[in-house]
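Review box. Two proteins, two foldings.
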Amino acid sequence: MWRMETVGLEQIEAAAALLAPVIRRTPTVGSRVLSERAGTQVLLKCENLQRTGSFKPRGAYNRIANLPVADRVRGVVAASAGNHAQGVAWAASELGIASTVFMPVGASLPKLVATRAYGAEVHLVGDTIDESLVAAQDFAQRTGATLIHPFDHADVVAGQATVALEILEQVPDVGTVIVPTGGGGLLAGIAVALHALAPNVRVIGVQAAEAAAWPESLVAGKPVRVPKMSTMADGIAVGLPGAVPFGHVAKLVSEIVTVDEDALSKALLLCLERAKLIVEPAGAAGVAALLTSALHDLPGPVVVVLSGGNIDPLLLTRVIGHGLAAAGRYMALRVTIDDRPGALSALLAVIGRAGASVVDVVHSRTGPWLDVDEVEVSLTVETRGATHRDEVLYALRDTGFRVRTEPDL
């Protein structure tokens, strides 16, 4: 039976006092391009610049620091593939407590190295977080170590809520706060704090469309597990909302919207290019929501929480490519030309006159769709955006080339 555990302002203010000496007061910076898009002032709350690269140490430190002395001696344990792992490892190290973290075998190398560097003993177990969590729970039962949940505990929610206190200090007239949402700890904490101190502020959660457990859960009136997930935003890919956050979110959050993978990659690219900030896909979910038509008539100023910046460089490269393609700045083409001298040169000349740049070319003379005197040329073309992309396609087709566009690079 689901039961609500409440978090109040007194707990949040106590967490703020506890965290003040150790947590960074992250900056809130304006974004002209997002302000123009939203029709009101938009600012970014940069938790990607927090210690360990995400908001997670706030809740982890508050939870661990409140453990009784007897529990501290036995250490703490967590299961995570990234941000929570680093947050627990850092917090435990700061407090002089032993930490053990179970991570999936496929966890990214930078996150694995960072977690160990923060002082945790790391074990690679299972292919998924759920399998790592089983191992962590078994470890807790065997050793007496305290399991530090990433979002389903009142102390964790209170710690995450300190983000809202900083927002109110930095943007006292804030009208809307947009929050990336997985298990709900950050969203619930921010909602509780704002409801107590600025009840007119609109709070909006954002989930990846391919890992969206909250919409169905809110309809059902209780946490409901999503059957499967597939998203680049692994930081908010949580299959079951937390029982502790649920009641607060259901009562206090204005709405929860979802964003697709294209929007996430475009948002990450915008943060990198325009704000000069490295943000992971999950951390950019709020920006993605502003770039889509999901949100309208937002009371301003709007503060978007960038919840994390821990992204594997290899994934960053792929996501940037995906974002460029989604924004119409990279285009994959397959063009059928005559198999004769000068045909390829003529194709490239049309592209050049249209002002596009060819990134790579692959020439193929085989394929059941080709006549014996035809060749298929696969190209990746760099353009200046969606309008220019359409102009390049028009130029090719107007010249008589048969062109097919590819959905992905």
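Next protein.
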Amino acid sequence: MSVHQAASPQPAAADAAEWAARANQAARSVTRTFGRRLLFLPGTHLGAVSVPSNTVKGLFGPWHYWWQAHYVDCLVDAGRRELAATTKFDGGSRPGAGRLASRLVTTIRLRNLFRFENHFYDDMAWLALSTLRLEKLAEETRHPGRRRNAYVRKKLTLQFDSASTDDLGGGTFWSTQRDFKNTPATAPVALYFARTDHRERAQSLVTWLNAKLLHPQRGVYQDGLRIRNGETILEEAIYTYNQGPVLGALLELGGPENLERAAHLVKSVARELAVPGTRVIHGDGTGDGGLFTGILVRYLALAARDPRLPTDARETARELVRTTAAAFWTSRREAPELQRSKAPAEAPFIFSPNPLRPAGETYPPGAAVELSTQLQAWMTFEAAATL
């Protein structure tokens, strides 16, 4: 089945159910293949950076705080579907998605030396956004842990307050070095402020992004402003994922100007960031880039469902989400070599970091598979399941 065939119109209910089933398969593949206890401690859960994994490297090597934050977000997506369907994504005998997400947040703190703060404000913003969503899920399910989630938000809000200054006219610093204000930090912090009723602060950050980093011709947001030897240097790179939280902040704030900008951004993304001749958002490789496409698609799904946007913008966003999801699904492969359980079970799926390249090419048997790329496909299926 081709990408374009996969994106053809289908009955809404059947299509959503199919994508929900696919999201469940991706969720099982990630949690069973990458999920680990920290130091074998009961009640802990963390995603291995790659599989097959080296135990020593896993304990002492990089563990990618912000990948784990997006892992929380994916689990919250699955938890919301569990709540609606009243069935667990991984069967009745295993922990539900909400419980796994709660364990993951606790384990992030343990792995981060008993702190939620780190040196990068964008990392912290992603965790703050995911725990905010987890807190709302907990309220709906009456699941314990809300006090812990509120504690996370309190600690991290203080960090965002200190990083969002008048230097360079506004915006949010990227790191504690305070020499770079950029879209990767400013956009998710703006979205976080908007979702926690700090609307004036959120709007000021969005206004700064529009004034300083919006490319006037291409209609998408550039990377940031760097302070070097007393001079301000524009970093002109344009990354897919940066457009996502900007879009989310525009929609969250609302109002005619923000909504008009959101509609323009959807159209610019389709023109600038889709693979030519398709409606598939291009991939950005492995490592951190392995998350980029999925993050953008997550927020395109919000635009697709927003009745305040013009019909053409909503339909464009919907097509980008579904076509990109279909490409990730079509390019998957089964990976029985990564199956950890000796008991009979479905083999995990492996998803390509590039939606238009088969996973058999990008991740052939024996290759190390990175968590970021698998979360990306999972969150894309979750986005498609909401449409």
